[in-house]
Amino acid sequence: MRANYKMxxxxxxxxxxxxxxxxxxREQAHYLGTVLRMREGxxxxxxxxxxxxxxxxxxxxxxxxxxxxxxxxxxxxxxxxDLVYAFAPIKAGRLDYLVQKAVEMGAGVLQPVQTHHTQLSxxxxxxxxxxxxxxxxxxxxxxxxxxxEMVKFDRLLADWDPDRSLIFCxxxxxxxxxxxxxxxxxxxxxxxxxxxxxxxxxEERRQLHALPYVTAIPxxxxxxxxxxxxxxxxALIQATIGDW
Length: 244
Hints:
Oligomer: single chain
Radius of gyration: 20 Å
Number of strands: 11
Number of helices: 7
CATH class of the largest domain: Alpha Beta
Low-confidence stretches: none
Strand order of the largest sheet: 8-7-6-10-9-11
CATH topology of the largest domain: Alpha/beta knot
Number of domains: 2
Order of helices and strands: EEHEEEEHEHEHEHEHEH
CATH superfamily of the largest domain: SPOUT methyltransferase, trefoil knot domain
CATH architecture of the largest domain: 3-Layer(aba) Sandwich
Largest sheet: 6 strands, parallel
Strand content: 25-35%
């Protein structure tokens, strides 16, 4: 079921049920009243990642609080996406874009990974979570992907579920066409890892190629920036063996 793109959507923490009422704080009151210029009686869509999507009507809208009456469920809670997206953090700004687009493209888990060439040793996890939440609100997604703590590359591979295919973008591939390679994977649990600017080190590439559940794919004849490669790879996976 495609999302209703004509109505404003908000993520809330509280429970959602028919006939209930939910109160929100200053930040969301400011967003609805000042930014969107909504008024009492206006309809919005609410979701919390647990109870599906609900139509709600603004009952009280003040500077510091907003109260909404929950009218009816518009969409049941779907199963969360099962695609694990592992990525080496890049510069702020571009990292925001990378996280937002990964959520839009159907990533179910966001896993930062520290590789040999990773530029950042620490990430602002709360900022990434805010970007994921914003993308979910805008794109009709009802299950906000969790942002995991950053792990080292070796630990990621050591803890990886061998029943889950891990796809990685290999700029040294001998072909430019990823489609025949992806189709050999079939309908399995999926994961994708995208390296940093500068790509994976030779040792990391050797480790990946040595694992039976890893599949290397090219991304065409041009060298792509890390954030571009992430979007391109996710689109290819979803269109061939994913949920498209």
